[in-house]
Amino acid sequence: SRVVAYGLLVTIILMFATFVVWGFGTGSNSLAASNYFDPYDGDDVYYDQDNNPYQYGDDANGNDDGGQANYDDGQYDQQQQDYQYYQANNNDDGNNNNNNDDADNNDKETSTTSNKDDSRRPRSFLRELERDVAQEMGLADAVFMPSGVMAQSIALLIHQEQQQQQRQVDDNDNDNNIDNLPTQPSSFLCHESSHLILHEQQGYRALLHLNPIVVATQHKATGISIPPMTLADIEETLLTASRTTTTTTGPTSTKCRDNDATIVALLLELPHRELGGKLNSLSELLELKEYCRQREMAFHIDGARIFEASAGLLATPETNNNDDGHDASNDDATTTTTAPTTLAKLMALVQPDSLYISCYKGLGGLSGAFLLGRDAAFCQRARVWLRRFGGNLYTLLPYAVAARMGYEREWKLPQQSQSQSSSSSSSHGLASFADKWQKLVQIVQRLSSEPSIARWLTFDPSVPETNLIHGYLRHVTVEQCDQASRRVQEACGVEIVGSFRPVRHNAAALAQGYKVMFEWTMGRANVQIDDDLHVSSWLEFCRELERIVRAAADSSQATND
Hints:
It is a single chain. This protein has helices at about 1-25, 35, 75-80, 125-135, 150-170, 195-200, 205, 230-240, 280-295, 305-315, 345-350, 375-390, 395-420, 435-450, 450-455, 480-490, 505-510, 530-560, and strands at about 45, 55, 85, 140-145, 185-190, 210-215, 240-245, 250-255, 260-270, 300, 355-360, 370-375, 455-460, 470-475, 500, 515-520. It is of the alpha/beta class and about 550 residues long. β9 (about 260-270), α9 and β10 form a beta-alpha-beta unit.
């Protein structure tokens, strides 16, 4: 019922927003609400056949047309040689080479032509959201995109372009147009649990012409717990010259030399979703940063759940010491590095070249993603590729509004509430990600100490590192778990987890008889449930599971007799 209520609330809000968009403002001199929500208003610069820049609101000759022109007008498409975005701190001569990292100088509300009247320029809802997120992360700029798959593909493409462009400069090649660069065999580094490897149908190869060098850590599993990727794992992978690719039947390994391909980027997921939300320690992140600088490769963070990761990374230095074999405190850098207190300070330490954030996971939006860059030129290029990928939808209003709502509700408001009160923000009905993480830690500790639960269920990691954790069930089937869960929901009114699924990617768990797993996230709804009710529901689940398994065994015995 809560889901239905939330759905109706979001629908009403979006309907009202749509009314606002189309119900206010007409004429070229008014600040129409539709312009406010148009993600392309005010910033777009096109280049005609003579390489002269003109903006939205100009005609093809660079003259002010009173704001009547449609930015998708055919005459623009025919005359532009390359669709580019233009930031306020760039020159007006059409050159797009400013690498100023100061986000404060990239004011997107400032006119890029001297003969413009700034008061007539429309504000952009989406540009404001992009700027706010970029400032929160301490990065130069952000680009809103329809999906995370698109965002990370574009990030890898740009890093490939930039590396090849630099090599052209080093080789004194006069033809340094980034769009005319020769295609060279390229690769990227990532963990075997990366979303690109498991869930994207080899898009990196089919679309990007990139090959993955996959770093495996399953062989280092402690019990059923697979550790996250570290610098030592990367060096070991490259030393043995092993590249793992993905086929339709699963991972296969082929031998190759490291120098057979150019490694354009290291892709690190933070946190590792498929590993139960495990985090790399701050010192490990700093080691990876330095490694990428030395190897002249980009450092890209898959931060789909970066807000969830903040709970562990922004706490006291290296406190994620647990019993699953991943000891974040065993590191020399802990004595010299102070844990950051904000995500902007974290990014200032780690210095990723690019960062992807999901809008619909921890933030609870409808869909969408942010792609952020350490310099403004990266995001300028990302907008070019956004257009090429067809990601500049006619309207992004529902996704942008939902992203803003989620960003404010799940991140900004709890932060503000906590800063204004010494008590937990959850006591005010605004649970922060740290509140959710701490609650999950408490409940998992209680569940793991119950023998009747531990008989069936094992958590990975044993102590949650974020507000997300994985659970593994042994000697049962998905169908049996679903049946027990339905009975608990009827008896207790609690859905303990969203779904159960077969174990596929954890060989250590399969070898120990674990056939079923689930992902448990402590979110905005279940964080309000009393701890005792959580525990009693799981106790009832295990009792029901035992009844179902015993009944199945009796039925099988009767059939054999």
